[in-house]
Amino acid sequence: MSNTVRYDDRTPRLFFLAAVVWAVVGMLVGVLIAAMLFLPKLNLAPYLTFGRLRPLHTNAVIFAFIGNIIFAGTYHSMQRLLKTRLFSSVLSKIHFWGWQLLIVAAALALVTGHTQAKEYAELPWVLDVVIAVLWVIFAINFFGTIAIRREKHLYVAIWFYIATIVAVAILHIGNSMAMPYSWFGSYSAYAGVKDALMQWWYGHNAVAFFLTTPFLGLMYYYLPKAADRPVFSYRLSIMHFWSLVFVYIWAGPHHLHYSAIPEWASTLGMLFSLILWMPSWGGMVNGFFTLRGAWHKLREDPILKFMVVAVTYYGMSTFEGPMMSIKSVNAVSHFTDWTIGHVHAGALGWNAFLSFAILYWAVPRLWKTELYSKPLATTHFWVATIGLILYQVSMWVAGITQWAMWRAFEPDGRLVYPDFIETVIKIVPMYWVRLVAAILFFGGALILVYNLVKTIKSAPANFAEEPEVNAPPLVADLSAPGAVTPANTYDHALYRFQYSLRHGFHRILEGKIVLFTVLTALALAVGSLVEALPMFFDKSNVKEIASVKPYTPLEVLGRDIYIREGCYNCHSQLVRPFRYETERYGEYSKAGEYVYDHPFQWGSKRTGPDLHRVGGKYPSLWHVRHMEGPALDDARLGHAALPAPSDGLDRRGQHRPENARPPLRRHALHGWRDRDGPGQHRGPGEGDRHRGRAPARPRGPRGQGDHGAHRLSPASRDRHQVEESRSAGPARARRAGGSRPAPRDDGSGRRRRDVAVLQELTARTGATAWAIASMLFFLAVWLFVTVRVFRARAEELDAHARLPLEGDGDPAELPAGASPRA
Questions:
Q1: Distance from C-alpha of 655 to C-alpha of 658, rounded to nearest angstrom
Q2: Angle 469-474-479 from CA coordinates, rounded to 5°
Q3: What number of H helices and E strands is found in the chain?
Q4: Contact present, 251 and 324 (Cβ < 8 Å)
Q5: 3-state secondary structure at position 462
Q6: Could you tell me how far CA 675 lies from the centroid of its own chain?
Q7: CA–CA gap between residue 125 and residue 179 (Å, rounded)
Q8: How far is 436 from 380, CA to CA, in rounded Å?
């Protein structure tokens, strides 16, 4: 067998180019939907509306841009780490072209309204099957390359790639179970609470194992390369990997605090989210300490600037995430723009910045040239950084403002802002800031494109020639010093095992790829089974409600329209057990109400009000007017997601005679919206609703403070019916026997209400101060111990004589016992 190896660099080149193209597309759509929220005329029905473009934006950025970076970086780095060529060029081509066609098909499906309405898993079932096939192709190519490797040691980046492949396969198959009814239509195999738990088991861990673990592998390879320094600690890498793989999978339920899931599941998710903070920061610290002795390079090297900010944002996001999982903090952040800011801090600050750094580092080397302009790359860095900070701060301010206004009460117990639109109008300036930030970040991406295009144009004519390296085939080490028996005896095997342990047990494990992969899968499966099995087999977790009836065919059709138009992107269908929510929306939601919901529709963000108790709240005429064209207030909400042309009304609000189906769809949507709530039992007031009278407001649970709605006296009920009528317009106010109060003055009354809001905000802050203080204390202790240990480790590493980097930057190992080079 020849000692010469030729690397397949064509495949990484194609994936890198595709990543650049999809980055521009995904970020352009992001800029557009950021403007749509307060400029509703940008919604062009029926295909280019916020409800349909929002999932297109997330899928384009995550699976198109970031996905192509993952595949490119994995194929590029693993050949050099394993000293071998990719297992199959045919599989590489199928993987590349299949993934790009999948992205195009996904975009067409989403803009035409074919969605499963599940966060990060919106694609139709037939495309889920395509994803599974392509992922299997990727896995075969990946593990086949490991099988023919010429380097025994599996570097830490390979570990994270393995975890990514195994975890994404488990998550995708588990969450994508569906009951198809057409080529593009299906209903989730799970219902209600079970579907919610499965979805956020998938949703949280899609962030973990598609946006985190593969990028940690890329960080462990490209950061040492760019800094020309060895990774700081091999032992810390081991701790980082196994603790992260085991702990991350448990944390999904923290997305469902104060919902209809059982309390044990919510608490379990919160506890493991807090534990997750430490292993996450282990990776951040390992990255930062890798730069020891190379910090001076940041002055001139834009690549290291991007990498340092990326690692910093990884640390910030993995601190903010566990903090937001604390129940009292989650009560503030959930359904608000704070969550949007948190998600973009991770996606842009961690994933996009590291991707930009990898592109600037890898593209010149793959095309055998120099980067066209470092000053342009530095300009890109500062423009993107300013945009990222503006985005995050604007969403923090908007989120806290939303929460404070939603829960503000008058001294006499009435809501200060009973109309949801009031909270939206207040944060429109923050939406302008976000749009400016999005334009800045997108502008930085255009700078990247120009810089890389000029770099590629300067490539020599022979850039496509495959690089050659000298790497002898891997030979099994059967040495057993001290053994006096033949090689096929137990005594000889014991001596060989003792000899293998000279570098530690984990080095032995790295040489047994099947065992390593199985242990990784087991670490992932433990948390998944512990959370899922009780939910599916213990009926006490979802208590049945006898009066809950299945959807009628008309209601099912109306619900499908709601999903098709992407209404779930702006509205929730979950009333939490807070007084300010039960006062505004009605009785808090219960698990048994959702047993016929395939899929669940609890929502993640409230750009518009909650709809779980909207049935019977407004007359049918209101719905018709709403579908014709949003009123002024609704326009500010961005409710052009259901424009007239997509539901059979022309611009004048009249049915088009040539099409009989749209009126039926419109009637179906009205029928579903007129239900008490999705899957909810018919309660008191049902007959009143159907006779055109306002139903009695449902009572809330008995509770204290913000965590339950007090029971209402008859006088209070009358007053709240009047308050409810204020949001339904003058006609409804007259039916409820009340009149709309005069506008509030801007004098002392307004000031007193503002003071009340600030006092409530202070009270909430005090309630969570202990948790934040405890986390900061543990952070200080952990950092103190870590610095002491790592300083000793640094002195040990510096005592070794480092080997120079080879040729095109292939990793060279340090002496035995030290951490690997790249």
A1: 9
A2: 140
A3: 28, 4
A4: no
A5: coil
A6: 32
A7: 9
A8: 16
- Residues with Cβ within 8 Å of 703's Cβ and at least 6 positions away in sequence, in order, are 577, 579, 709, 710
Give 10-residue mean pLDDT values along the chain (822 residues): 86 97 96 91 87 94 96 96 94 97 96 93 95 97 94 91 96 93 92 92 92 95 92 88 92 91 90 90 90 86 94 93 92 94 94 96 95 95 96 95 94 90 91 95 96 95 87 74 72 70 77 91 90 83 85 89 90 93 92 91 92 82 66 42 41 40 57 53 36 35 35 38 38 33 45 50 47 53 54 52 37 38 36
> The tokens of 745 are what?
């003055």
Q: How many residues does the chain have?
A: 822
| Per-residue pLDDT at 736 | 33
CB neighbourhood size of 804 (10 A): 7
- Report the candidate in 154, 160, 152, 149 with the shortest Cα–Cα distance to residue 286: 160
Handedness of CA 229, 235, 239, 244 (dihedral sign): positive
DSSP letters spanning 175-217: H--EEESSSS-EEESS-HHHHHHHHHHHHHHHHHHHTTHHHHH
Residue given tokens 């009249």 in the structure block = 654
Query: How many CA atoms does the CB half-sphere of 470 hold within 13 Å?
Result: 2
E-only strand ranges, 18-147:
none
Three-state secondary structure readout of 436-484: HHHHHHHHHHHHHHHHHHHHHHCCCCCCCCCCEEECCCCCCCCCCCCCC
State pTM to two decimals: 0.81
Burial class of residue 28, CB neighbours in 10 A (0-12, 13-18, 19+): middle
As to burial, measured by CB atoms within 10 angstroms (0-12 exposed, 13-18 middle, 19+ buried), residue 738 is middle
Please report the pLDDT score of residue 221 as a whole number: 95
Q: CA-to-CA distance for 588 and 796, rounded, in angstroms?
A: 59
Phi-psi sector, 474: left (phi>0), alpha (psi -120 to 50), beta: beta
Q: Smallest Cα–Cα separation from 349: which of 384, 378, 394, 298?
A: 384
Provide CB contacts within 8 A for 182, sequence distance 6+: none
Tokens, residue 162: 């393995």
pLDDT value of position 23: 96
Amino acid at 180: P
CB 643 within 8 Å of CB 46: yes
